[in-house]
Amino acid sequence: MYKNCTESDLEFDQHHIWHPYTSLLNPLPCYSVKEAAGVHLTLESGEQLIDGMSSWWAAVHGYNHPQLNNALREQSERMSHVMFGGLTHKPAIELCKRLVAMTPEPLDAVFLADSGSVSVEVAIKMALQYQVSRGTSHKNKLLTIRSGYHGDTFAAMSVCDPVNGMHGLFKGVLPEHIFADAPLLSPSDEWDESDIQSFKQHLEEQHASIAAVILEPVVQGAGGMRFYHPMYLKRVRELCTEFDVLLIADEIATGFGRTGKLFACEHAEVTPDIMCVGKALSGGYMTLAATIASRDIAEVIGRGPGGGALMHGPTFMGNPLACAVASASLDIIATGQWKLQVSAIAEQLARELAPCEALDSVHQVRCFGAIGVVEMKEALDVAKTQKLLVKAGVWIRPFGRLLYVMPPYIISSAELSQLTAAMFDVCCHAENLS
Ligand SMILES: *Cc1c(COP(=O)(O)O)cnc(C)c1O
Predict the structure, then answer these.
(1) Which of 11, 260, 325, 406 would give a disulfide with 369, using CB separation of 3.0 to 4.6 Å?
(2) Ligand 1 geometric centre to CA of 400 (Å)
């Protein structure tokens, strides 16, 4: 039986529950959601908001989706969870079959992780264990690019942007890796080799100590919502091969169609040695991610010390509920409908956000795939901006100077217009919102 969320519940929340990146001494206001269906979140107050965030890239098919609900219900009536050590099951096998089939050819060894950050930890562990296993343990550093985001656990944090990635706070504890300058050219710029210089120089000088390169292909998400030139990624792949360094592509935000390709690596026609997926993997229903490695990596690790075991194994690894709903989500992806949906969203975002750029408060508008970003000149006050957006009937969460949307693929053109109109409105009133 549904129980309403009361004022005192909300008070409890403010005093006792940490929300993402918040202080318990100075909590930000939170809106209580009663239910969600399609592209709508319904607040306790009854207000309906059009969702512009897909719950952080995840809910690509919208909420309360009948096919996903069914998969979850049916699986829950059979078995919700069993340990994955020594046991296996159809939901995990079905999901991994789909992942092996969807990802480029050499990627065929799947590790099921319980969150994106964990899948990044596992990718890093695989890369390091690979180097140890083939007798090149001196290759134990990671090379990445600035403005990246790879998650909040320690290994993942160590390759996030060193300035906005909390490196100062944890100095002395975080492993120190190597950072190349962030790419400057955007996908629509004319390619210029100077963009890759910093990266190339780091590899030339330090490849003997580098195990792997890790980056987000083409779209840098939470580290700054930046889009870079696919040629940059192409060069990265060539240089990794030349200098005998593994390439880890973090497709956690970009995977499953968001950028207009099934995986963002396809924009540069490159194949990584290890790929991380998460977020939209389960259609936003359950926490689930995966690290998919090439056969070669799996074999080298398999011949290595310690009996060749990959040393990782979360309690909830391969959770059947999460696997079942993820397979159902990938079946929707497999229909290919996302291609038309994403390209229509992309075209409309570019057209309807363009007028923002003429406003004094706006530094830059950039769009790529079904992602629209307005970078302001001044940081937006989250609470004030959110209030205005909720009043406009939309759910968009600003972040620093960034106001951005990555809506569910199923959003209608009219609903998307409501999102872009609300963003324009924020830009018009920015002086009251900083
Ligand atoms: C969100 C994200 C992660 C972390 O995933 P969690 O499920 O939040 O741990 C890692 N990499 C990228 C690119 C992401 O967008």
Answers:
(1) 260
(2) 18
